[in-house]
């Protein structure tokens, strides 16, 4: 069986301030750094074969913390980056909701100006997942991504529509655990943050 630990990066300054990040870089806050250390504590006794991450700094920093004691390289893949919000990058979420009053109803199919759609995110995640399943037949891997990317992963594996994927919570530094064996998918954890309530890694 292949075990996939799908992680969302730790809290960033944009997360804290309710700013649209997308493909823009935003540094981890002190809380985000602490969350990353607790993730590292969680994985301290877990055998991990490979770590993949989005090339955005918030994901790389989270992934590197996880690999600190494991002598593993962080493999960055452009397909794991967050959705591109185009001209909305760096603006407040209040701005988005005022600009598109029914945002929550149409966000699964909406393209922000010069941005990307959820369908496009799903297509690149699907391509990445296909390669992973061919490359890793068994063992354990960690993937550090973003809210939209993780929802795409889970939506694809669980056959959930683009619109319904928004019902899947993805908190900062959460853990999703998926098992794949002979194309059979089993999900053991979704949006688990129980490790953040311990002193692991500190």
Provide keyphrases for this structure.
202 residues, alpha/beta, Rossmann fold, 6-stranded mixed sheet, 6 strands, globular
SSE order, as H and E?
A: EHHEHEHHHEHEE
List the uncertain runs: none
Oligomeric category: single chain
Q: How many runs of DSSP E, i.e. beta strands?
A: 6
Query: What is the beta-strand fraction?
Result: 15-25%
Tally of separate domains:
1
Known CATH architecture: 3-Layer(aba) Sandwich
Report what the structure shows.
With 202 residues, the protein is an alpha/beta fold. The protein has a single domain (2-197), classed as Phosphoglycerate mutase-like (Rossmann fold, 3-Layer(aba) Sandwich). 35% of the residues lie in helices and 18% in strands. It has 7 helices and 6 strands; from the N terminus they run E-H-H-E-H-E-H-H-H-E-H-E-E. It has a 6-stranded mixed β-sheet with strand order 3-2-4-1-5-6, with helices on both faces. Helix 2 packs parallel to helix 3 (57-67). The longest helix has 18 residues, at 118-135. It is globular and about 45 Å long. The two termini are 31 Å apart. The mean pLDDT is 95.
